[in-house]
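pasting for the record
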Amino acid sequence: MKLAVVAADYTPGEADQLRRDMAAWRHTRRIEKHHERLVSRMVAKGIEPEFAERVFAQIRGFGEYGFPESHAASFALISYAASYLKRHYPAEFACALLNAQPMGSTRRRRSSRTRATTA
């Protein structure tokens, strides 16, 4: 994003939109709307057109590969930390796991027994 701001005079809002469009890596056409704007602004600032095209190709490549890869790296780090805690602090790990229930939801679900008596 810093590159877009410095080399292509993107506003912070435009740079944030570029970041969002890079994150939408499955929708490759979203990043393409930045091609003309980014390259033409870089050329206007004296950057060689071939170099500007290479820079955009790297941005496009990172959008297709870098975001899923970076999420995988984050997940790997979390998995490693959880495994370490489970191995070296099993009681604390079990307590933390129980305190985090229900996983992925903050709403309490009605039990099947409650549903049966209210129906």
